[in-house]
Amino acid sequence: MPILRLHDCPARAWKNGLGRTRELAVAPPGAGMDDFLWRVSVAEVDRAAPFSAFPGIDRIIVLLEGEGFTMLLDDGRKHALTEPFAPFAFPGEAQVAVALAGGATRDFNLMVRRGRARGRIAVWRQPGHARLQVETVLLFCARGRLELDGQVLETGDAWLRTATAPARLQLAAGAVVLAVDILPAD
Is the pTM of this model over 0.85? Predict the structure, then answer.
């Protein structure tokens, strides 16, 4: 069962060079910034730097740690990404300015190539809600522990679906898991 450890993923510069991210998974494997179908990463935001532009990509961002930040999108929308584990979707081509609410933050990012697929993130908080969907491609342990058929994911670990799904999913008390689903384009 493929377990990915965030601490094993090297920190790389953002596309615009103004921040750092750790890529957990990309499809197809080995794809670059111009040819991925979907991509999951964890970014570190420690200053008010604008986001990189990703034309043709739909993005979903989730605050993991820290006080968060306010996003000002070029269409005039303003979004306070200050509530942990609350997904926010926006177009990748949007120009996004950032104002930190406090110190450094860490956020989870899903990027999906528009027109070829759609993405969604379900937030699991209770063991009774741990239901793997056919479309689920990745589980990210955002807080606490998740047991998959005897293997344990700790905070920052992810499970990548390759073929066989785990028969047993058990969230520890207080755990939060982000379930990434990739669906066909409409």
Answer: yes
